[in-house]
Amino acid sequence: MTTHRTCDGLLRRDLIKAGILGSGILGGSLTLADHLRLARGGESESGVADRAIFIELGGGPSHLDTFDLKPAAPDTIRGRFRPIKTNVPGIEISEHLPRLANCADKFAILRGVSHTLAAHELGREYINTGSRPLPSMTYPGYGSVVAKQLPTAEDIPANVAIPRVGQGPGFLGLRYAALETNSAPQPGRPYSVRGLSLGGGITVDSIRRRQTLLNQLDRRFAAVEADRQLLDGLDQFGAQAYAMLTSKRAREAFDLTQESPSFAAQFGEDSFGLSCLLALRLVESGVRYVTVQLGGWDTHQDNFTRLADQLLPKLDDGLSGLFNGLAQRGLLESTAVLVSGEFGRTPKINERSAEGGRDHYPRCMFMLLAGGGVRGGQVIGESDDTAAAPRHHAYSPDDVAASFYANLGIDPTTEFQTESGRPITLVRDGQVIPELFG
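^ thats the sequence. predicted structure below, dont judge the formating
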């Protein structure tokens, strides 16, 4: 999957991360055992859904050209695309999303979501956490919270990002960070994740022989170990890394060749569609949370060509495949799905290119939710005649976060503590949107 820079350039947190991981602070790279040492799961609560997938549309997709069209607005606002009917009477979406139109009964459209952060990094952090960013506090992304709150089997990761995560673990600490694949599946190519795949001629038997030797050495030197507690901890995470490397379930979860061609075909032949298929396989295998990224939505120029020829066909194939595939596998009722960018785009079309584009616009945007207790086939909220603002009630990212967590059985008012002992409420301002579950 292509990495897209927004108009803001490289994110500051990416520079920091690159600096840290490239230095000697963490030894240059993390082994699987290191990652597991940092990504240990926690206590669980039962809920309607017990796993989740977040589709992050990096750059900020235009709501007017996707799920909130305004065909009666002036031509300087409505754009080129026509609305089409869906399989739910009364609901219409963009003509370039025909496959999603045919499965609109499986997801809810939330219109009139609104906030005030028009910069990519700040908007992204807000959407990924459900808490307005603060200079003094870094809130955890959804996946890190889920990894902490819902237990995961030892031989499978709790939190996976394809290819990378939009928000880190924040004050929860690196032990709840996502396992980033750092790549996405590509059509016609074998896919593997570094640290999980047995490349270079290494076999499961050779790993088992090495583990046996390590166990023998551990017993030999047990009498002279000075810090048994620390070494027991290292053994625990080493054992978990060993369990994942030798786990047939973990390896097969990442192996797309296990899928039948007929099932895989509905996801399309694009990298994003294959990533959605991989996300389905991961949650089916026991992974609690998967992030899938589709960037490129920062359409200041050539908005309509880029959407019609590239972005919307990819989204249509991959996302419809995900909704239909989850339903076909009996997983939709247990998998919460959230689809969102960091903001919407301006109603008025700019003149930065021959056909024009749309700029950053957080005052009005859409989100999609599905799975678990969410009732599909409905539109919640409404924007005004030009999609410039919510017509009546504005939903905040905090409200969406509270609803998303509630759908997973996680109380959004849960109080965590930072390493310094400071109490922090998970979602400090949001309220659950009851209509989602009606």
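The two ends are 37 Å apart (CA to CA).
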